[in-house]
Amino acid sequence: MKKIIATFNIFFLLACSFLVWAGQGTFHKDHDNSKASDQGKMQRNTPPGTYERQVVVGGVRAEFQIMSLASMNMKDPNGATHHVMVKLFHDSANHPIKDAVGKVKVIEPNGNEQINSLKNYNGIYAANFTFIEKGKYGVICLVKVGEKKCLFKFWYHHG
Fold this sequence. Notes:
- With 159 residues, this protein is of the alpha+beta class.
- 17% of the residues lie in helices and 45% in strands.
- The chain has one helix spanning 2-28, and strands spanning 51-57, 60-68, 82-90, 95-97, 100-107, 113-117, 119-121, 124-129, 135-145, 148-158.
- Strands 1, 2, 3, 4, 7 and 8 form a six-stranded antiparallel sheet that branches. A four-stranded antiparallel sheet has the order 6-5-9-10, covered by helices on one side.
- A hairpin with a 5-residue loop joins strand 5 (100-107) and strand 6.
- The longest helix is centred in the first third of the chain and has 27 residues, at 2-28.
């Protein structure tokens, strides 16, 4: 198991490094691989200030929500300000994926990076981050579902 996690960590770091090296253009050109019709706008039935985005890669649909911990009446012991949550589905069958591992990398407007592992809360995956500076944040999420690896990315505008 440790070998699998170590391999996954190495793959995640290499994939993120490659994106930064080869593709800063992906974020800097303001493109993403989103399939959402709302293009990340707030939707009905979500708490105020909640950002939602759907991204589909390789037949896996990721439904992201970014919300402030304060709006959830929560505090992070490490001082994080926001909660990044993702639900995973087999897109064609709409079946939830409850057994995955992953990491999220957030690239701040100033270029600094934060990386956290997703924690599995019974099929809802989440990690906490600090969003202080106003501006566009790049969000990159790598998940492994069985032997399949999926890389999701999009922009989140904070402020």
